[in-house]
Design brief:
A hairpin with a 5-residue loop joins strand 1 and strand 2. By secondary structure, the chain is mainly β. About 14% of the residues have low confidence. The protein starts with a strand and ends in a 6-residue tail after the last strand. It has a five-stranded antiparallel sheet, with no helix packed on it. The protein has a four-stranded mixed sheet with strand order 6-3-10-8, with no helix packed on it. Helix content is 0%, strand content 56%.
Length: 303
C-alpha cells in the first residue's frame, strides 16, 4: 500500500493511498521418479513442490544429488543441477530427471561335492569236500577219504568309490559405486568467478531517537538490484516500514528497485500495535544472487 499525505498552507491535511499487488503464478518443481528432494530459492521440499512466485523474479532451483542411490541427469529446461530461472507470466513446471542405480544380480558358481557310491568286487572262496580213493593195505582194501578242493561261488566284497556331484552356490556381485563429479554452473548475468565464495548480504540495526528500529541492508558483492518486503507465503506482521527518499510508508508487501550503483539501503520499522511482535520478511537481490532474510522483534515496548 502506497500512502501520500499533503498539507496546505492553512494546515489542512489530505491523504490518498493505493494498494500495489504483484502478479504471481504457480511454479511447480517435480522429479522423475517422483518423490525426490528439490530446492527453490533456499527452501527444500519433497517433489512435487508447488509455490507462488512473482512474475519476473529471479529464483535459483537445485536438485541435490545423489539421493538414495540415484544421481541427477538433467532439468526439463536443460539447466544444470543448480541454476537460475526467471519466472514467466504463466504457470510453469520444471522436472528434474534422476537415474536409478542398477540392482546387483547374483551369479551362480559351481562347486565340487564328493558323494560315496558303493561298488561290488567278486573275490573267489574255496569249499573243501571229501572224495574217497582206494589205497591197497595187505590183502584187504581200505577206503581213505582224500580232501578235494571245489571252487564255490565267489563272495561279494563292497569297495567304496568316489563320484563327483556339482552343487551350485550363489556368489554376490559387488554393487557399483557412484562417484559424483562436481559440475560448474553459470547464473544468468553473474560472473561465477566473481562470486566464489559467495558473500552473503549483511544487516545492521539500531534504534532512532523517536523509538523506531533503523535497519541497513548491505550487498554481499556489487550493487543491490532489488529489495522485496513481505511475500505471499510470509507476509509482514504488525510492521510499518518507512524508506527515506520514498514517499509514504507501507505495512504490506512492497518491492523496491535499487538505484544503479547503490550498495546499501536504510529503512525504518515501527509497530502497528504496541507490545505485539513484529516480522518483516525480505528477499534481497545483489550481483551474486537472491537472499532470503527477515527483521523481527518480540513482544514488548523496546526492540
Amino acid at each position: 500500500e502506497l500512502v501520500l499525505t499533503a498539507t496546505d498552507g492553512g494546515g489542512r491535511v489530505g491523504t490518498a493511498s493505493v494498494l500495489v499487488r504483484p502478479r504471481t503464478v504457480n511454479l511447480t518443481l517435480d522429479t522423475s521418479p517422483s518423490g525426490r528432494q528439490v530446492v527453490l530459492g533456499g527452501e527444500q521440499a519433497t517433489a512435487p513442490m508447488i509455490r507462488q512466485a512473482v512474475v519476473g523474479a529471479h529464483l535459483v532451483v537445485l536438485a541435490p544429488s545423489p539421493q538414495n542411490g540415484a544421481t541427477f541427469v538433467s532439468w526439463s529446461d536443460g539447466g544444470a543441477a543448480q541454476h537460475e530461472i526467471v519466472v514467466g507470466e504463466t504457470d510453469a513446471t520444471l522436472t528434474a530427471v534422476f537415474s536409478d542405480a542398477p540392482t546387483p544380480t547374483p551369479s551362480i558358481t559351481p562347486t565340487m561335492t564328493v558323494t560315496l557310491t558303493p561298488s561290488v568286487t567278486l573275490t573267489p572262496s574255496v569249499t573243501v569236500s571229501a572224495t574217497p580213493t582206494l589205497t591197497p593195505t595187505g590183502a584187504a582194501q581200505t577206503l581213505t577219504p582224500t580232501p578235494t578242493a571245489t571252487a564255490g561261488p565267489p563272495a561279494a566284497t563292497r569297495t567304496p568309490t568316489r563320484t563327483p556331484t556339482r552343487t551350485p552356490t550363489r556368489t554376490a556381485t559387488p554393487r557399483p559405486t557412484v562417484t559424483r563429479t562436481p559440475t560448474p554452473t553459470a547464473t544468468t548475468g553473474i560472473e561465477v568467478s566473481a562470486c566464489s565464495p559467495r558473500p552473503p548480504v549483511r544487516l545492521r540495526s539500531g534504534v532512532t531517537p523517536d523509538g523506531r528500529l533503523q535497519v541497513t541492508v548491505t550487498a554481499g558483492r556489487g550493487p543491490l538490484r532489488s529489495v522485496r518486503f513481505g511475500t505471499d507465503e510470509r507476509p509482514m506482521a504488525n510492521a510499518v516500514v518507512d524508506i527515506p527518499g520514498v514517499a509514504g510508508s507501507f505495512s504490506s508487501a512492497y518491492s523496491l528497485t535499487a538505484p544503479a550503483g547503490q550498495t546499501e539501503l536504510t529503512f525504518l520499522v515501527d509497530r502497528q500495535q504496541a507490545g505485539q511482535p513484529v516480522t518483516v520478511p525480505m528477499i534481497v537481490t545483489d550481483d551474486c544472487g537472491i537472499w532470503q532474510t527477515f527483521v523481527g522483534a518480540g513482544p514488548g515496548a523496546g526492540w
